[in-house]
Specification:
The termini are far apart. About 10% of the residues have low confidence. 51% of the residues lie in helices and 3% in strands. It is globular, with a radius of gyration of 27 Å. Strand 3 and strand 4 form a beta hairpin. It is built from 11 helices and 4 strands. The strands form 2 sheets. It has a two-stranded antiparallel ribbon with strand order 1-2. By secondary structure, the chain is mainly α. Helix 9 runs antiparallel to helix 10. It folds into 2 domains: 150 residues, no CATH class; 63 residues, no CATH class.
Length: 270
Protein backbone atom coordinates (compact mmCIF):
# COMPACT_ATOMS: atom_id res chain seq x y z
CA UNK A 1 0.00 0.00 0.00
CA UNK A 2 1.43 3.34 -0.96
CA UNK A 3 2.35 5.75 1.84
CA UNK A 4 -0.45 8.22 2.63
CA UNK A 5 -3.13 6.17 0.87
CA UNK A 6 -6.41 6.12 2.79
CA UNK A 7 -7.80 2.82 3.90
CA UNK A 8 -11.32 2.17 2.67
CA UNK A 9 -13.50 0.87 5.51
CA UNK A 10 -15.32 -2.43 5.04
CA UNK A 11 -18.54 -2.07 3.06
CA UNK A 12 -20.79 -2.93 6.02
CA UNK A 13 -18.93 -0.96 8.69
CA UNK A 14 -20.07 2.33 10.24
CA UNK A 15 -17.90 5.39 10.88
CA UNK A 16 -16.45 5.38 14.37
CA UNK A 17 -18.03 8.74 15.21
CA UNK A 18 -21.55 7.59 14.30
CA UNK A 19 -23.76 6.01 16.93
CA UNK A 20 -24.37 2.31 16.50
CA UNK A 21 -27.81 1.51 15.17
CA UNK A 22 -29.68 -0.72 17.57
CA UNK A 23 -31.59 -3.56 15.96
CA UNK A 24 -34.45 -4.65 18.16
CA UNK A 25 -35.75 -8.10 17.49
CA UNK A 26 -39.50 -8.27 17.41
CA UNK A 27 -39.68 -12.04 17.32
CA UNK A 28 -40.06 -12.27 21.09
CA UNK A 29 -41.97 -9.03 21.60
CA UNK A 30 -45.17 -9.41 23.55
CA UNK A 31 -48.34 -8.98 21.54
CA UNK A 32 -50.81 -6.68 23.23
CA UNK A 33 -54.52 -6.99 22.57
CA UNK A 34 -55.81 -3.85 20.92
CA UNK A 35 -58.83 -1.81 21.93
CA UNK A 36 -62.14 -3.46 21.13
CA UNK A 37 -63.88 -1.23 18.59
CA UNK A 38 -66.89 -3.46 17.77
CA UNK A 39 -65.79 -3.80 14.15
CA UNK A 40 -67.08 -7.37 14.00
CA UNK A 41 -70.45 -6.27 15.33
CA UNK A 42 -70.61 -3.41 12.84
CA UNK A 43 -70.00 -5.84 9.97
CA UNK A 44 -72.79 -8.13 11.16
CA UNK A 45 -75.23 -5.22 11.43
CA UNK A 46 -74.28 -4.00 7.95
CA UNK A 47 -74.77 -7.49 6.53
CA UNK A 48 -78.15 -7.91 8.26
CA UNK A 49 -79.31 -4.43 7.30
CA UNK A 50 -80.78 -3.82 10.77
CA UNK A 51 -79.87 -4.06 14.48
CA UNK A 52 -79.20 -7.64 15.56
CA UNK A 53 -81.91 -9.77 17.14
CA UNK A 54 -81.39 -11.31 20.57
CA UNK A 55 -82.95 -14.10 22.58
CA UNK A 56 -83.16 -13.20 26.27
CA UNK A 57 -84.29 -15.91 28.69
CA UNK A 58 -86.74 -15.52 31.57
CA UNK A 59 -83.65 -15.80 33.80
CA UNK A 60 -82.68 -12.41 32.33
CA UNK A 61 -79.68 -13.71 30.41
CA UNK A 62 -78.90 -13.41 26.68
CA UNK A 63 -78.71 -16.86 25.10
CA UNK A 64 -78.18 -18.34 21.67
CA UNK A 65 -76.84 -16.42 18.69
CA UNK A 66 -75.27 -12.99 19.37
CA UNK A 67 -75.42 -13.33 23.19
CA UNK A 68 -71.67 -12.72 23.59
CA UNK A 69 -71.86 -9.63 21.39
CA UNK A 70 -74.32 -7.97 23.76
CA UNK A 71 -72.11 -8.53 26.81
CA UNK A 72 -69.07 -7.26 24.91
CA UNK A 73 -70.84 -4.14 23.68
CA UNK A 74 -72.10 -3.34 27.17
CA UNK A 75 -68.48 -3.47 28.33
CA UNK A 76 -67.46 -0.94 25.66
CA UNK A 77 -70.39 1.37 26.44
CA UNK A 78 -69.56 1.19 30.15
CA UNK A 79 -65.89 2.05 29.68
CA UNK A 80 -66.34 4.99 27.33
CA UNK A 81 -69.78 6.42 28.06
CA UNK A 82 -70.97 5.58 31.58
CA UNK A 83 -70.75 8.33 34.22
CA UNK A 84 -67.90 7.44 36.56
CA UNK A 85 -68.87 9.48 39.62
CA UNK A 86 -71.13 6.83 41.10
CA UNK A 87 -70.32 4.19 43.70
CA UNK A 88 -72.18 1.51 41.74
CA UNK A 89 -74.82 0.86 39.08
CA UNK A 90 -77.57 0.98 41.72
CA UNK A 91 -76.75 4.64 42.23
CA UNK A 92 -77.52 5.50 38.59
CA UNK A 93 -80.70 7.41 37.90
CA UNK A 94 -82.92 6.55 34.95
CA UNK A 95 -81.62 9.74 33.31
CA UNK A 96 -78.07 8.35 33.62
CA UNK A 97 -79.06 4.98 32.17
CA UNK A 98 -81.20 6.11 29.25
CA UNK A 99 -78.32 7.32 26.98
CA UNK A 100 -76.51 4.02 27.54
CA UNK A 101 -79.61 2.03 26.60
CA UNK A 102 -80.03 4.14 23.46
CA UNK A 103 -76.48 3.32 22.36
CA UNK A 104 -77.28 -0.39 22.66
CA UNK A 105 -80.57 -0.05 20.78
CA UNK A 106 -78.63 1.30 17.81
CA UNK A 107 -77.03 -2.16 17.49
CA UNK A 108 -79.54 -4.59 19.00
CA UNK A 109 -83.31 -5.02 18.84
CA UNK A 110 -84.25 -4.49 22.50
CA UNK A 111 -87.77 -4.09 23.81
CA UNK A 112 -87.23 -2.47 27.20
CA UNK A 113 -90.93 -2.60 27.97
CA UNK A 114 -90.46 -6.32 28.69
CA UNK A 115 -89.32 -6.83 32.32
CA UNK A 116 -86.92 -9.69 31.56
CA UNK A 117 -85.21 -7.66 28.81
CA UNK A 118 -84.82 -4.56 30.99
CA UNK A 119 -83.72 -6.79 33.87
CA UNK A 120 -81.08 -8.43 31.69
CA UNK A 121 -79.54 -5.07 30.80
CA UNK A 122 -79.63 -3.96 34.43
CA UNK A 123 -77.74 -7.05 35.55
CA UNK A 124 -75.17 -6.95 32.75
CA UNK A 125 -74.50 -3.24 33.22
CA UNK A 126 -74.18 -3.70 36.97
CA UNK A 127 -71.57 -6.43 36.51
CA UNK A 128 -69.76 -4.50 33.77
CA UNK A 129 -69.60 -1.30 35.83
CA UNK A 130 -68.23 -3.19 38.83
CA UNK A 131 -65.57 -4.85 36.66
CA UNK A 132 -64.58 -1.54 35.08
CA UNK A 133 -64.18 0.17 38.44
CA UNK A 134 -62.03 -2.73 39.64
CA UNK A 135 -59.78 -2.41 36.59
CA UNK A 136 -59.47 1.31 37.25
CA UNK A 137 -58.34 0.55 40.79
CA UNK A 138 -55.85 -2.05 39.56
CA UNK A 139 -54.38 0.55 37.19
CA UNK A 140 -54.26 3.08 40.04
CA UNK A 141 -52.24 0.65 42.18
CA UNK A 142 -49.89 -0.34 39.34
CA UNK A 143 -49.22 3.34 38.68
CA UNK A 144 -48.05 3.82 42.26
CA UNK A 145 -51.15 5.54 43.64
CA UNK A 146 -51.28 9.19 44.69
CA UNK A 147 -50.10 11.89 42.27
CA UNK A 148 -48.18 9.32 40.24
CA UNK A 149 -51.45 7.57 39.39
CA UNK A 150 -53.28 10.86 38.82
CA UNK A 151 -50.73 11.74 36.14
CA UNK A 152 -51.23 8.40 34.41
CA UNK A 153 -54.98 8.01 33.70
CA UNK A 154 -56.45 4.65 32.80
CA UNK A 155 -56.78 4.51 28.99
CA UNK A 156 -60.62 4.75 28.73
CA UNK A 157 -60.53 7.86 30.96
CA UNK A 158 -57.64 9.75 29.35
CA UNK A 159 -60.07 12.12 27.67
CA UNK A 160 -61.93 12.60 30.97
CA UNK A 161 -59.21 13.82 33.37
CA UNK A 162 -61.74 15.21 35.83
CA UNK A 163 -63.38 11.80 36.18
CA UNK A 164 -60.02 10.06 36.67
CA UNK A 165 -59.00 12.55 39.38
CA UNK A 166 -62.33 12.07 41.14
CA UNK A 167 -61.84 8.31 41.00
CA UNK A 168 -58.31 8.54 42.43
CA UNK A 169 -59.66 10.67 45.29
CA UNK A 170 -62.36 8.05 45.87
CA UNK A 171 -59.82 5.21 46.00
CA UNK A 172 -58.03 7.02 48.83
CA UNK A 173 -61.07 7.45 51.07
CA UNK A 174 -61.26 5.49 54.29
CA UNK A 175 -64.62 3.98 53.31
CA UNK A 176 -63.28 2.59 50.04
CA UNK A 177 -60.13 1.21 51.65
CA UNK A 178 -62.21 -0.61 54.25
CA UNK A 179 -64.46 -2.17 51.60
CA UNK A 180 -61.42 -3.14 49.53
CA UNK A 181 -59.91 -5.09 52.42
CA UNK A 182 -63.22 -6.90 53.06
CA UNK A 183 -63.66 -7.73 49.37
CA UNK A 184 -60.15 -9.14 49.09
CA UNK A 185 -60.72 -11.33 52.15
CA UNK A 186 -63.99 -12.65 50.70
CA UNK A 187 -62.33 -13.53 47.37
CA UNK A 188 -59.68 -15.49 49.26
CA UNK A 189 -62.47 -17.65 50.72
CA UNK A 190 -63.66 -18.76 47.28
CA UNK A 191 -63.24 -22.53 47.37
CA UNK A 192 -62.98 -23.08 43.61
CA UNK A 193 -63.78 -21.51 40.27
CA UNK A 194 -65.44 -22.92 37.17
CA UNK A 195 -63.66 -23.69 33.91
CA UNK A 196 -65.93 -21.95 31.38
CA UNK A 197 -64.57 -18.42 31.36
CA UNK A 198 -67.03 -15.53 31.17
CA UNK A 199 -69.85 -17.35 29.38
CA UNK A 200 -73.05 -17.28 31.49
CA UNK A 201 -74.21 -20.68 32.72
CA UNK A 202 -77.67 -20.07 31.27
CA UNK A 203 -76.19 -19.49 27.81
CA UNK A 204 -74.01 -22.60 28.11
CA UNK A 205 -76.98 -24.70 29.22
CA UNK A 206 -78.93 -23.46 26.21
CA UNK A 207 -76.12 -24.57 23.89
CA UNK A 208 -75.69 -28.00 25.52
CA UNK A 209 -79.41 -28.68 26.11
CA UNK A 210 -78.60 -30.41 29.39
CA UNK A 211 -80.03 -30.48 32.91
CA UNK A 212 -78.57 -28.37 35.72
CA UNK A 213 -76.69 -31.15 37.49
CA UNK A 214 -75.01 -32.20 34.23
CA UNK A 215 -74.23 -28.54 33.58
CA UNK A 216 -72.49 -28.31 36.96
CA UNK A 217 -70.16 -31.15 35.96
CA UNK A 218 -69.55 -29.52 32.57
CA UNK A 219 -68.50 -26.28 34.28
CA UNK A 220 -66.35 -27.67 37.08
CA UNK A 221 -64.82 -30.77 35.54
CA UNK A 222 -62.53 -31.03 32.51
CA UNK A 223 -60.14 -33.55 30.96
CA UNK A 224 -57.67 -32.56 33.68
CA UNK A 225 -60.12 -33.43 36.44
CA UNK A 226 -62.33 -31.57 38.89
CA UNK A 227 -61.74 -27.96 39.89
CA UNK A 228 -61.51 -29.14 43.50
CA UNK A 229 -62.51 -31.94 45.87
CA UNK A 230 -65.41 -29.80 47.08
CA UNK A 231 -66.74 -29.45 43.51
CA UNK A 232 -66.62 -33.21 43.01
CA UNK A 233 -68.29 -33.82 46.39
CA UNK A 234 -71.08 -31.39 45.52
CA UNK A 235 -71.72 -33.19 42.25
CA UNK A 236 -71.82 -36.60 43.89
CA UNK A 237 -74.16 -35.29 46.60
CA UNK A 238 -76.57 -33.94 43.98
CA UNK A 239 -76.53 -37.25 42.11
CA UNK A 240 -77.27 -39.10 45.35
CA UNK A 241 -80.15 -36.77 46.18
CA UNK A 242 -81.49 -37.17 42.66
CA UNK A 243 -81.36 -40.97 43.04
CA UNK A 244 -83.11 -40.85 46.43
CA UNK A 245 -85.69 -38.51 44.96
CA UNK A 246 -86.72 -41.25 42.53
CA UNK A 247 -87.43 -43.78 45.30
CA UNK A 248 -91.03 -44.53 46.15
CA UNK A 249 -92.34 -42.50 49.06
CA UNK A 250 -89.52 -39.96 48.93
CA UNK A 251 -90.20 -36.25 49.31
CA UNK A 252 -90.15 -35.02 45.76
CA UNK A 253 -87.64 -32.28 45.04
CA UNK A 254 -87.19 -30.56 41.73
CA UNK A 255 -83.75 -30.46 40.17
CA UNK A 256 -83.63 -26.74 40.94
CA UNK A 257 -84.34 -27.42 44.63
CA UNK A 258 -81.62 -30.09 44.78
CA UNK A 259 -79.08 -27.66 43.32
CA UNK A 260 -80.11 -24.91 45.72
CA UNK A 261 -79.86 -27.22 48.74
CA UNK A 262 -76.32 -28.27 47.85
CA UNK A 263 -74.93 -25.14 46.20
CA UNK A 264 -77.02 -22.29 47.56
CA UNK A 265 -78.75 -19.76 45.36
CA UNK A 266 -76.99 -16.97 43.50
CA UNK A 267 -77.86 -15.19 40.27
CA UNK A 268 -75.93 -16.37 37.20
CA UNK A 269 -74.64 -19.52 38.88
CA UNK A 270 -76.00 -23.04 39.12
Amino acid sequence: MAPGQKVRPPRNSQPSNCPQTQHVSTSNSKKVRGKNKSKGLERLIKKAGHPLNLNISVERRPIGENHELLSREIGIVTRYHAPIKHIGWNNFSEADKEPLYELLKMKFNLDLSKPHVKGCLELLFSSSYKTFRHRCYTHYLKSGGGDSARNNPYEPLRDRPGDWTWLCDHFETEEFQKKSVIGKANRMKLAYVHKKGTKPFVALQHELSCDQISLYKECYCSDKGWASRDARQNYETMLQMQHENEQEGAIQLTEQQICEKVLGKAYGYI
